[in-house]
Each structure stands twice: as C-alpha cells, then as structure tokens.
Input
Amino acid sequence: MQRDEVNVGVKGVLRYYPDTGTVIAILANQDCNVWDMANDVYEALKELSIS
Output
C-alpha cells in the first residue's frame, strides 16, 4: 500500500508492506526522488532480514 503527496516544496511517501509489517515514511523539503529512496530502503531491509 502506498500514499504519496507532492506540494510546492514538499514531497512525501508512506508505504506499508503487510507481508513483513514494514512501514517506510519519507518526507523531504528539497528536490529529490522520495520514491527511489523508499525503494532503496526497502531493498536494504530485505537484504538484512533473516529467513
């Protein structure tokens, strides 16, 4: 599940992954790609998880 917003000067993304109970929330007040950041965080968390 994902919720994202873009307003002048502010970007944000909130993601919930029910299979792992993981929540990723990123807010930014500068020009950056919060969606790519959220993908990178999730991929890093998957690498850290122990099956």
Remarks:
- The chain has one domain: 2-48.
- The first helix runs from residue 34 to 48.
- The helical segments are 34-48.
- The radius of gyration is 12 Å.
